[in-house]
Amino acid sequence: MIIYPGETSVCEFIVPYGSDYISKTVVSFYQDGKTILSKSDSSIADNEDGGSIITCTLTQSDTLKLKDYYVCSIQINVLSTNGLRYPSEPIEVRIGQQQYRQVMV
């Protein structure tokens, strides 16, 4: 996965928990050891394996907070209906160069 600053991105993650077991998710994005962005408005849908697909949409303003050419670590935190928190291992993705497009009017 490559995320481009200035563009809208949709990130999907599969977790081994059914949607009826998940009360909340937080997807956090880190660069240089700092939290750049945390999203708690992800959608959750069941998949055919009994787990869930977490879909996190990054807006243009979200992706502009990420530095070009830097690695970004993403961590998914699942809060269960019984109050337990399940953090994922960090996932490293590349941040591409900001795309500049010429628009004809």
List keywords for this structure.
105 residues, 3-stranded antiparallel β-sheet, 6-stranded mixed β-sheet, mainly beta, Immunoglobulin-like
CATH superfamily, by name, is Immunoglobulins
Distance between the termini: 32 Å
Uncertain residue ranges: none
Average pLDDT: 89
What's the total count of β strands? 9
Kindly estimate the percentage of residues that lie in beta strands according to DSSP. over 45%
Overall number of domains: 1
Query: Could you state the order of secondary-structure elements as H and E?
Result: EEEEEEHEEE
Strand pairing plus helix content: what structural class?
A: mainly beta
- State the share of residues found in helices, binned by percent: under 10%
Largest sheet: 6 strands, mixed
**What is the number of helical segments per DSSP (H or I, 4+ residues)?**
1
Q: What name does the CATH topology carry?
A: Immunoglobulin-like
Overall body shape: elongated
Assigned CATH class? Mainly Beta
- From the alpha-carbon coordinates, what is the Rg to the nearest angstrom? 15 Å
Tell me what the CATH architecture is.
Sandwich
